Amino acid sequence: MNHFYNDSIIEKKQRSLNDMTLTYRLFENSSGGDPIYSMLITMAEKSSETDFYIPDISVCKETALHIFQRIQKLLVLPSETPFLFSDGAFEKDFSDKIS
Are 22 and 14 a contacting pair, CB within 8 Å? Predict the structure, then answer.
């Protein structure tokens, strides 16, 4: 798996359940400007691997870390991730931290 144009992985957590392993990575990306935070969730099973990349979670490191911690503690699967954002699960995080 290519990690796109990441400058650095600032957080990584790996969790194992039954026959699968979930890996959560939080990236700090920059293209010569201010940092932007993105996340990659990988689910590996015996015969397959599924990824979900979330670009531009936040421009605030504190907000990105908070969302990262919540997602990995809840063991969010790649297939569930889009619904968390579209259902507004992190709305309070964004409204409190980003102007």
Answer: yes
